[in-house]
Design goal:
The chain has 328 residues and is α/β, with parallel strands linked by helices. It has helices spanning 3-8, 11-14, 53-57, 98-101, 123-129, 146-151, 155-158, 180-189, 215-219, 247-259, 263-276, 280-297, 300-316; strands at 19-23, 41-45, 64-68, 71-72, 78-85, 112-121, 137-140, 163-166, 192-202, 228-238.
């Protein structure tokens, strides 16, 4: 049994299993939760049921799976207008910003097929209904309201979130949406650090025929143009810098850091926990993480390209002589 599984099967974790919140859950389970799911309680939200099949079929993946076909709100619960777009992944409580989108190749995905009235609920309502008092891994793809939904958890819950995943906008795809800059400022102020970010986007080219492009060019050739940033996929981790953290928190923090392959941070958490708690498990976590780090040194697929670049740089600086060619 791996040490990660040993930790997840420990009594302190089994008595308070990880709680995973998935806002915008259509399309199936979050791949990052593969190692956690079996031991965790997942709360999934999505009012657009068109692509919820994979999520429903994943019920056996989790210890518990609770699906709410409702839109999550940070405001008053009740009913709200929901924009069902051509691409289900773009459906939102926020109206697509058609004026801004008109200049972008992917504007067609945001075409509103119809407006539906959907029930809305707060995350806190779902937690109370399930008798849960924590959120350990928060993942949201709400199409516009990621930051305000995270803040709606309230500071006591936010301080104990281990990992938070967001998909904030860079351009104004939706009217009044939360933007990447706002998210970064807010998370920095709350003691989280950005562990990963992938910037994605679209091509800045209007699809209007008046631009001078033919029909074939507008529909196909524009994909060959350079894309520009449109949104980001951002992951934050709790720095454990403020507040009181329990033995369970450190154990689960180490698991999350290991899953994210943030082995340097995992080692930091294990070392800090070893100082706070008289428990041999944390020394074991340290040794395991050191082994993981050392194994990465000798990952041949990663090592040889790095070695070639280093030798090339040394040669340019005159620090190494070229190896003589072998003669027959």
């Amino acid at each position: 049994m791996s040490l990660l599984k040993k930790v997840l099967r420990s009594p302190v974790i089994e008595q308070a299993p990880p709680v995973l919140v998935d806002i915008g859950a259509s399309g199936g389970p979050n791949p990052a939760w593969k190692a956690l799911a079996k031991y965790s309680i997942c709360i999934a939200f999505d009012p657009d049921t068109r692509e919820m099949g994979p999520t429903r079929r994943a019920s056996k993946v989790y210890r518990e799976l609770h699906i709410f076909n409702r839109a999550v709100t940070s405001g008053v619960e009740g009913e709200s207008e929901f924009y069902l777009t051509k691409s289900p992944a773009c459906s939102s409580l926020f109206a697509p910003n058609t004026d801004e989108l008109a200049a972008w190749e992917f504007a067609g995905r945001f075409q509103v097929l119809k407006k539906a009235v959907v029930e809305t609920m707060q995350i806190a309502t779902a937690l109370r209904a399930l008798n849960l008092d924590r959120v350990d891994w928060f993942k949201t793809d709400s199409q516009g309201g990621d930051l305000r939904l995270f803040l709606s958890l309230g500071e006591p819950l936010i301080r104990k979130v281990m990992v938070a995943e967001f998909e904030p906008g860079i351009i104004d795809s939706y009217c009044g949406e939360d933007k990447l800059g706002e998210l970064m400022s807010s998370m920095d102020a709350r003691g989280f650090w950005m562990s990963d970010v992938t910037i994605k986007g679209s091509t800045r080219v209007a699809r209007d025929a008046s631009c001078g492009l033919g029909r074939f060019e507008r529909h196909y050739m524009v994909h060959l143009l350079k894309p520009s940033p449109g949104w980001g996929e951002v992951t934050y981790m709790n720095s454990f810098s403020g507040g009181e953290f329990s033995r369970r928190d450190y154990l689960l923090g180490w698991v999350c850091a290991s899953i994210q392959r943030q082995h340097g941070f995992a080692l930091e958490l294990a070392a800090a926990a070893a100082r706070h708690f008289e428990d041999a498990i944390f020394d074991e976590l340290k040794r395991d993480t050191v082994r993981r780090i050392r194994r990465s040194y000798f990952n041949l697929r990663a090592y040889f390209p790095l070695a070639r670049r280093a030798i090339h740089k040394w040669r340019r600086l005159g620090l190494a002589k070229a190896a003589p060619r072998c003669s027959a």
